[in-house]
Amino acid sequence: MKKLLDLLTEEMGKAFEAAGYDKALGKVGVSNRPDLCEFQCNGAMAGAKQYHKAPMMIAGEVAEKLAGSRAFAEAAAVAPGFLNLKVRESFVKEYLEGMRREPKFGYESGKAPKKIIIDYGGANVAKPLHVGHLRSAVIGESLKRINRYIGNEVIGDAHLGDWGLQMGLVISGVQERQPDLVYFDETYTGEYPKEAPFTISDLEEIYPAASAKQKEDPQFHAKAMEATYKFQSGVRGYRALGEKIREVSVEDLRKNYQSLNVEFDLWNGESSVGDLIPEMVDYMKEKGYAYISEGALVVDVKEDTDTKEVPPCMILKSDGASLYNTTDLATILDRMRQYQPDQIIYLTDKRQDLYFVQVFRCARKTKLVTPETELTWIGFGTVNGKDGKPFKTRSGGVMRLETLISDTKAEMYRKILEGREMSEEEARKVADQVAVAALIYGDLSNQASKDYIFDLDRFTSFEGDTGPYILYTIVRIKSILSKYAEQGGAVEKAALREPDSAAEKALALQLTAFQAVMESAAEENAPHKICAFVYDLANSFNHFYHEVKILTEEDEKKKAGFIALLTLTKDVLTDCIGVLGFEAPDRM
Fold this sequence. Notes:
The chain is an alpha/beta fold.
């Protein structure tokens, strides 16, 4: 099903052609002056120079050709040469009927499906998630859902940090606490225990203590470096212990991510490609891509067009140790072998810009990817407190993500109980749903690259551009539909009608933008565009709700038309919040 603007542009193009002008001049856009018209075409302005005619003359001739148009009820030429347009109500009704009939409201990508891997989450094993992990999780999850919605095959990978010095620090910390564990007996050849010798709480104590100790104790630092080397080089007990650290961490991470409706298809980590690194390094050496510089193995990635210095991509440090570059490149190699993706998308803090320039150029130069493979990096801004600085706890520490979630749920529970008769169990369930919507929408409604202020009071408000406001709108529609059914109306049989009021037509026209918004959000990796659409749609509905008496309308056919319009509005809103990553309760 074509987008509404495309259909209007086709109609306008025919009018330009009929008037003797190039039909390409007939591009129609949404009016930036809705008080004057619904849509606008500026083609006469562009055609003036081409045809050596006054824009008003061209616009007037085209407007005459639109008399009796099936799409346009009004086409007025206004100075200095614009065409102000209003769409026929019958055309809007016809378009909405198509949306109701078609899967996904008529969305068609028109492109072959892509296979995409999205690398998001950014968690490290043995460390709790903090507020800085919120953005990667919810933006990545939304991009995964948007791409699946439009028909792409998407694989979401948590890509855990489980390979560097932190593993050596945790292993050394465990060894100090439990030196007799069988993992440290390098002569042991039997099976290792199934149960981990620590809990997630233990790991969350061990890592920061070990990290602090290595800064003050050179001997412990050397021990941690040795443990890292043994782990990376495949010493059996160290690898087995590393896997236990990973298992315990992943079990805890799953719970935290699930509380934000975030689900990964793969829980691979840097360690998943550890054994590929020697092969990749040998390949880069043999092909002449990598060379030794000041003891380190590097690949030049600078280009003649660079306006600032782009240092070589380091593959191995002078001591032979690998880096994030190394594991990321090995992961690209592994993904190409296993999945042959058309695109790999990475989400990280926006300060990693130069890093991804180096890694992507290195992957291309060394032919780890095909020329057609898209490598996309999305850098996101920080979550800040009201002081404009990165969000902290009251004591000044980095806030844990689970604390942020629990605080939001507690505030939402308090608000849900105000003036509502609801059991504690239902209130808790609803509060949890709405709190998650508040967090996800509060984040996604901002452009990914921009920092934003986390304001609990604003995010949990039922008014304004917030998740709770969107959910409240959906719940309000559900309530109206339920009452209509209680009155004996058949919701599913209600037929659309031509809108006959400004509020009704505004809501109908807002719905017609769905396809264009979904396409734009997918192409530009921009969930905030869906948030903006959802907010505008919710506002259009609420204006309609306050302007029109829906359930008390005496004309049953007219009332059924309202119900059909509301049903479509609810369904579109539901799909939109689904791709954003949250859902609406039945009542609030």
